[in-house]
Design goal:
- The protein is α/β, with parallel strands linked by helices and 255 residues long.
- It has a single domain (20-241), classed as 3-Layer(aba) Sandwich (Rossmann fold), CATH 3.40.50.410.
- The protein has 9 helices and 6 strands; from the N terminus they run H-E-H-E-E-H-H-E-H-E-H-H-E-H-H.
- Strand 4 (137-144), helix 5 and strand 5 form a beta-alpha-beta unit.
- Helix 2 (35-52) runs antiparallel to helix 3 (94-105) and helix 4 packs parallel to helix 5 (153-166).
- The radius of gyration is 17 Å and the shape is globular.
């Protein structure tokens, strides 16, 4: 993985202060060839995000849940189904935190019900925004091989529709899909999600997609696209909507 000189990107990266940066990692069997890439990528990117996001980053997996989380326990919040504030208020070293989390996860395996996982996470966040529109935006970065076993279009289109109905700012939610590997069918499907889904659904565009290929190497420009790709289309409008001196409200509870 390249060492990036990001000094010239500080202005754009500063936008991360107004977003909760959330990673959703595909840990299905299809990710086995790319697992070391994912760990290394998060090892490099998470400190960058945490530097500009005072709460650190949140990290969720499609299949893995932290110890003690019971999936179908009544009243159990999906917020507790991942790892929060990595590199943030806990003052832990982000590199060590990511490494420990991946030790907990172990090897990838099983199916990739990405649609179901997205639906639960997006429903939780949009429910919070509906109760209080002042909440800051979500920058959701999905790392996946793209071999989905369920429908991802429906939850993404529904999220965009709900945002339109609530008349939230254009920057409220961005979803960055990062494809691991170079499967042509997956690339085509991602291009459809990126370019066509919002037009077919008649909603705002919340999706950006990029392929990491098989090399595992990203330039600084490509890294910036991964971190900000889901929201970068709205950056100019966002800068006017939320000046640098205005504090951004965040979801601080786990409920």
């Amino acid at each position: 993985m390249a060492d990036w000189d990001l000094s010239e990107y500080d202005d754009k990266l500063s936008y991360l202060r107004a977003f909760e940066t959330v990673f959703l990692v595909d840990d299905s069997a299809a990710m086995t060839p790319y697992w070391d890439q994912v760990k290394e990528l998060l090892d490099h990117i998470s400190p960058i995000c945490a530097k500009h996001d005072p709460d650190g980053i949140d990290l969720y997996f499609v299949n893995h849940r932290p110890k003690g989380f019971i999936e179908f326990l009544p009243g159990q919040s999906v917020r507790k189904s991942g790892y929060r504030r990595i590199g943030g208020f806990t003052q832990l070293q982000t590199r060590d935190s990511v490494a420990q989390i991946f030790e907990n996860v172990g090897k990838p395996g099983g199916r990739c019900n990405m649609g179901a996982r997205l639906q639960k996470l997006l429903n939780w966040y949009l429910g919070k925004v509906k109760k209080d529109p002042a909440f800051g935006g979500w920058n959701l970065i999905v790392l996946t091989a793209g071999k989905f076993d369920d429908d991802v279009k429906a939850p993404l289109a529904e999220a965009a529709k709900r945002l339109d109905e609530m008349k939230t700012p254009a920057h409220q939610l961005g979803v960055q899909l990062l494809q691991l590997g170079n499967d042509a069918a997956v690339s085509n499907a991602f291009r459809h999600l990126d370019d066509d889904l919002h037009q077919a659904a008649g909603t705002r565009d919340i999706i950006d997609a990029v392929s990491m290929g098989t090399s595992g190497a990203l330039t600084a420009d490509e890294m910036l696209k991964v971190v900000l790709g889901g929201v970068v289309k709205k950056l100019d409008a966002f800068k006017e909507a939320v000046p640098d001196h205005v504090p951004v409200k965040r979801v601080d509870t786990d409920d």
